[in-house]
Input
Amino acid sequence: MSIRHKGVFVYNKCYGYANLQHQVPIDSNTVFHIASVSKQFTVMALLLCQEDGLLNIDDEVRNYVPEYIGFSQPVTLRQMMNNISGIQDIWELQMMRGVRIDDTITQQDALSIIASQKELNFKPGSRYCYSNSNFVLLAAVVEKVTKKTLQQFLKERVFDPLDMKHTQICENYWQWIPNRAESYYNNGLSFQRHVLNYGCYGATALNSTANDLMKWLAAFGTDQISSKAVWEQMFQVATVTGDEPTTYAGGLEIGDTDGKRYVEHGGSDASFRAYVRHYLDEELDIVLLSNTQAPFLPLLMERIVNLIFGRATQSEALSELCIEDTNPKEAIGIYYKDTPDYFYYDIEQKADGLYIKEQYVDTPLFPVNGNRFRIGAQSSFYLDLEKDAGRVSINKNVTPLKKELKKPDFMDRCYEGRYESGELETAYEIKVKDGYLYAKHFRNGEIRLVKADKDRFIGQMRNLILEFWFKRNSQNEMEGFLLSSDRVWNVNFNRKK
Output
C-alpha cells in the first residue's frame, strides 16, 4: 500500500509474503502482476504512436491489422481504447468454448479468437461494454506500426524515461520475472496457490511495483514522456450515441470524490489484485497491490479516501445490520437475477457448514448474526438472506436475487439436442436429467440451468454467468439458442438435426 500527497509519501508499507512456500516477505521491490491496470499503458503507447505520426486514433482498426478483423462494421481505435467498440471480450469467449482461465493462453491464441468474431455486441459507438479484446488488438496495432514489441516500445518511451526499472510485460507464460510475487487464493480457511498461465498482453500482463507505479502516476498531465495534449486525450471521457457520457476514458475510469476529480483503474487476474488512483487536482496518488483476492481493494480504497477527506464511511455500518434470526439451512439453493445483467449464486450445505460455489474453490459462509453471513473469513462481503422473500443480496448494494424455491420437476424435452457454434467451434448438449435442464460441454462439464422466462435459462459455468435464449422455428420447434454473458452478447448456436 502506497499513498503520496503533494510529492511526499505519507504511507508506504508492505505486508505478508510474496512466496508462502519459502516464506519470502513482500518488500518495496516485490513485483506484482497488475492485470487490467496494464490497459492505460497500452493506450499511452497508442497515443505516442499518434504523436509520432504513425497512426490516427480515428482510423479504423482494419487499416492496421486486417488479418485479425472478421466483422464487417467499421471500428475505430478511439472506440476501442474507450470500450465502446462492441467487440466481444476474449476471456468470456474463451470460456464459452471450453478454455479455462488456468490454461496456457498465448497472444496468438487471443488474436485468433478475436479474428474468428463475425458479429459485434452492438453498433460501434452506441453503447459501453468493457472488453479485453480491444486492448489486445491495440497492442497488435502498436507493434505493427512501430515494428517493435509492445514491451520494447514502452521500455524506450515510458519505463526508461520514468526510471521504472522493475516494470515489464510478461510476453510468454513461461517467462521468469525477477522478484515477482506468487498468487494465492484465500478461501477463508487456507491459502491455495493460484496459477497464472497465460502470456496474453495489451489488456493485461504488465508486472510492476508500487514505487514504479508511483513514478507513472507522477507523470500524469506532465511533459515527461509526451505532450500534455496526449494526456488530455487519455483523460477524455468517452461518449456514446446521443452524446451521453460514460465513465471510461483511455484505459482509465473517471470519477470524483465530492467534486475532486480522479482517474483510476483496477485489475484482477488469478488472485492478483491491483488498484491505482490519481487525483487530477489534489496531488494525491494511491497504489494498492495484492497477491491474494481476500482484501477487497475497492472497499479499501474507499476507506482510505474517506480518511483522507474526512468523509463518513457508509460500508462500516453494514457489519451491524441484522433484520431477524433465521435458520442458516434456509439459505441453501440457487439464487439468480432475471434481468440481462446476469447474477447467479449457488449456496450448498457441506459437512462443516454452508458454502457459496465459486470458480476454483467453494468459499465458506460464516454466520455473523441473524440472517447475515460473511463470505469467507477475512472478506468484506456479507450475504443477507431475506427469509420471507426467498431472496439474497450481497452487502445490500445489488438488486436482490430470486431464489429457485423448489425443484421444478422439469420434463419438457423440446430443448434437448446438440447445439453447435461455427464461430466458437464448439458445442453444447442440452438434456433433461433428474427433473432439471442441463447444458453439457466436453470441457466445462454439466451446467444446471434455471428457467428465468419462456425459452430463457440462466446457468453458472465456473465464474461466468451464461444466458441461454432458445429460438423456435415456424413449426414451434427449437432451432438453436443465443448464448450471452456479461461481455459477450448473442453468440449463435444451431441445433444439429
Remarks:
- The first helix runs from residue 39 to 51.
- The first strand starts at residue 2 and ends at 5.
- Residues 74 and 437 are 39 Å apart (CA to CA).
- The domain at 413-495 is CATH 2.40.128.50 (Lipocalin).
